[in-house]
Amino acid sequence: MKKKLTFLLAALFMCMQAALAQDTWPTITGVVVTADDGDPIMGVSVSAVGTKESFITDINGNFVIKNLPASVKTLRVSCVGMETQTLVIAKLKIGKKNKIVLKTDKSLIDEVVVTGLYTRKKESFTGSSQTYKAEELKNVGNLNLIQSLKTLDPAFNVLESNEFGSDPNRLPDLEVRGKTSIVGLKETFGQDPNQPLFILDGFETTLQTIMDLSMDRIASVTILKDAASTAIYGSKAANGVIVVETKAPQMGKLKVSYSGNYNISFADLTDYNLMNAAEKLEYERLSGYYTSNIADQQEAQEKRYNRLLQNVLRGVNTYWMSEPLRTGFNQRHYVSAEGGNEQFRYSLGVSYNNVKGVMKKSDREVMSGNLNILYRMGKLTFSNNLTVDVTSFSNPVVQFYEYANANPYYPKYGEGGKVEKWLEYKADTKDIYDASVNVGNPMWNDRLNSYSKGESFAVRNNFNLEYRPLQVLWLRGRFGISKSTSDGESFRSPQDTQFDQVEKLKKGSYSDNRTDNLSYDGDFTVTYGQLLGNAHQINAVMGATFQETKSISKSFDVQGFPDGNFTTPAFANKYPEGGKPGYYDSKARSVSFYFNGGYSYDNRYLLDANVRTDGSSVFGTNKRFTTTWAVGLGWNIHNEKFVKNLLSGVQMLKLRASIGNPGNQNFGSYNTLTTYEFNNWMQNYFGTGVLISGFGDPDLAWQKTLDFNVGFDFSFKNRFHINFDYYRKNTDPLLASIGIPMSVGTTSRLANIGKQVNKGINGTIRYAILYKPQERINWTTSLMFRYMTAYYDKVGDKLDQFNQKNLTKNMTRYYDGGSPTALWSVRSAGIDPASGREIFITKNGKYTFDYSYDDEVEVGDTRPDIEGTWGNTFYWKGFSCSIFMRYSLGGDAFSSTLYDKVENISSYDLARNQDRRALYDRWQKPGDKARFKGISLTENTPMSSRFVQKNNYLTIESVRVSYEFPYQLMNKIGIQGMTVSAYMNDICRWSSIKEERGTSYPFARSVSMSLSVNF
């Protein structure tokens, strides 16, 4: 009986097991990794379709599913920023670990915010930021990162240089959401106090490094704009932060990639409106230049006029501006090799960039190599990134304006096709019977053995160590070191026309400047992130950073060279009068401690809080440390049930607001210290004398900006997107150089004064007119816009020294209530038709012929009312094209062309060519209604509102056509992928103002082609 009972129980147990086996799946295990680099992904959701069952991957990307009902047939694997996968359970390897590979969702890559110190989901981030992936950047251009960002982001602005145009060896002036420091004092601080902070792979870097960085190395770029997003960088973040991430090594077999870019650039001279030979000679005649009350001088003037007229009549009409120009053929190449497994990965890349500027002798050549190694051992991950850059450059010795100034009635060549030293020459300056003038030939100076060139060498090594002891805890330490050396030298031949009246032993000049930089920085970060109760997401980051930068500059100038090919300093005669070698040694140190906390409830209500303490040697000894903070709030309305029920197509509807007080350290190392310079000629009983070089202030306070931002993000059915922000930035106190009595040994010092308030809006509207992702068809139009105003307050008369200096130089003033970009001058009522004199308007509205600086008022503002870009991007199968146009409306500009080349033309200026309006648009007789006064060689015209014009313009900034060859076709010939693209950049421009652009170096238009191949 007992045996029967035992058998019966065993049979019943086996039946129960069989029944249970039919109702549940065996244990399912797996690991989720990324397709890009094979890294395990923590926090991936593995859910059972049709049930509420959901499982989350651990720190190593692993998941285990037990007792899953047999009725469940599929699993859904999803993660923010990755493409969702659906798995059929029956096809999985039961009893073995399944490897699930997730690809990056290209449409959602910007849903992750990379700050350089931590990464956060955009949906749970309260800051204002924008991320652009490599494909988006290349859709606009293939020249450099800055060119693409200025087109794509409304908050990022590249300030056009009317002097240096497209000079490849000049760095642009940049700003994110306007300026936080006083405009026009860049030279005082030794660096641009309004430049944003650049972060490359987690380490601070320079604008030059970003400009030279190959576009093929970039994975993504994130612009951090408000206090909540930039506060982690504390006292360095007031101007915004640009975070650049390069591509990490990908796992797999050896993969070789090549990218080639070929560019043709040519000068844009459409804004030049110069006289031809007949017009210029006629202008000189009407000006009375060839008329004299002294008979002998009159005869000499007539002889010169007839000689020049003979040139005109025989067809001399030289177009000088073509002489220094060329069509620039530029090329950029990048070759990379990468591979490895889950434990060890590597990538090696070599890039070559050869830029030929549109001016002859204008070149920049950059060769760069990078080695990236990643090694994973259990919970430890090591990575090291080594980069070496070798750069050489050269600049034209003769500036472009010297050619533009040459009069067209002079022939280029003399007898026998020879380039003469002088276009016109007067051997005896005291000979009253010779009316000739000395006019040098720019072609002569350009063909001498003069030069301006340089080279640099830079090494950067960044080491990263990560340790994840727990699923919710992440420790990271980083250390970076950078060493660079640059050497620039210039030589001017003794045969140059500028040395004509110089004594023999002083003819010719040479200068050399060498700079050595060494910097290192590091940080240690602890990151904690955990989801509690499926509703409370907690994130915390705390850490410390340190940095030191050393710079040593050595320079000297010598003069007096013999004729011939003797261009080195060994042949120099002496230093310039009172000259001696220069030496400058600077060092800056900083240390920081920071905390960032984030809280999200049910992914609906968001809170971010930041606090950071910074210490820096840049500020006064009594103000070494300061604390910055920021708070951000957000509301994901799209996650509310009432929105999901009523508006099912809304993917994103988020309100956010932030406030904080980031700072600015973009000031010279020794501006806060009293410094001295030795003078050998001040010898005394105690030794060598010293003079005060700079007057310091130990109580100099940090410049901080109270930054308030409110904005929203909206997305509907992946077709309609809006991003909008309103901001207000209050910088108080400002740092500025103010005048002090000469009796203290110097004329100015750095001080805290007043405040500056910036406020504005920026945003982007995008709509997909066609959206068929399964068919690879898409047409998206986008509109980017920005508007900003600013004003000074509590400045008083502390900057009056600059106001006085600027009275005759420009229209920039520093007044309480005035805008940093405002134009100040006396109002003009135009030219009196009866007398030809200018009529001015006083402050109280009265009309007068008398000009007084006391009547200055604001007559315009260079900041436009609205500006931005309008873009269209179209995709069809493997074909794609895009066009982006820039618009600017409502801005004003002071026309230096009208002021210097239409009026204010003296007899000395007649040796230069002038604007055609100087001949045709001038007052001549009573009753004439003209814009400009009568021709005069003696009368000086002061600056007035008559020279301020509306500067509305429209440019075609980028045009691109691209084709990606089908994978099946390429695979047959052993190629994994190939893409061909063609670009046109800055190809057209229409403007309401006729102003010479690119006076020292012209602007350029470019056409380029790009080829990318993966083997």
- The secondary structure category is mainly beta
Estimate percent helicity: 10-25%
> What's the pLDDT, averaged over the residues?
88
Rg of Cα set:
34 Å
How many DSSP E strands? 52
Note the gap between the termini. Answer: 76 Å
* Coarse morphology: elongated
Q: Which residues form runs of ≥5 with pLDDT under 50? A: 1-21
Figure out the total of helices: 15
- Main sheet properties: 22 strands, antiparallel, barrel
What is the percentage of strand-forming residues? over 45%
Describe the protein in words:
By secondary structure, the chain is mostly beta strands. It is 12% helix and 47% strand. It has a 22-stranded antiparallel beta barrel. The chain has a 5-stranded mixed sheet with strand order 10-15-16-13-14. It has a 4-stranded antiparallel sheet with strand order 3-2-5-6, with no helix packed on it. The radius of gyration is 34 Å and the shape is elongated. The N and C termini lie far apart (76 Å).
Quick take:
Helix content is 12%, strand content 47%. The protein is mainly β and 1015 residues long.
Task: List descriptors.
1015 residues, mainly beta, 22-stranded antiparallel β-barrel, five-stranded mixed sheet, 15 helices, 12% helix, 47% strand, elongated, disordered N terminus
SSE topology:
Blueprint: H1 2-23, E1 28-34, E2 45-48, E3 54-56, E4 62-65, E5 74-78, E6 85-88, E7 97-102, E8 112-114, E9 119-121, E10 129-133, H2 134-140, H3 145-152, E11 156-159, E12 173-176, H4 186-189, E13 197-200, E14 203-205, H5 207-212, E15 218-224, H6 227-230, E16 241-246, E17 252-268, H7 277-286, H8 295-313, E18 328-340, E19 344-356, E20 363-377, E21 380-394, H9 400-404, E22 422-424, E23 439-440, H10 442-446, E24 451-470, E25 473-492, E26 509-532, E27 536-559, E28 582-601, E29 605-616, E30 625-636, H11 641-646, E31 650-660, E32 663-664, E33 675-684, E34 687-694, E35 703-716, E36 720-731, E37 734-739, E38 748-753, E39 755-772, E40 777-793, H12 800-806, E41 822-825, E42 827-831, E43 838-841, E44 847-848, E45 857-861, E46 866-876, E47 879-889, E48 892-894, H13 896-901, H14 917-920, E49 948-950, E50 953-964, H15 967-972, E51 977-991, E52 1003-1014
Parallel strand pairs: 1-7, 13-16
Antiparallel strand pairs: 1-4, 2-3, 2-5, 5-6, 8-9, 10-15, 11-12, 13-14, 15-16, 17-18, 17-52, 18-19, 19-20, 20-21, 21-24, 22-23, 24-25, 25-26, 26-27, 27-28, 28-29, 29-30, 30-31, 31-35, 32-35, 33-34, 35-36, 36-39, 37-38, 39-40, 40-46, 41-45, 42-43, 43-44, 46-47, 47-50, 48-49, 50-51, 51-52
Helix pairs in contact: 2-3, 7-8
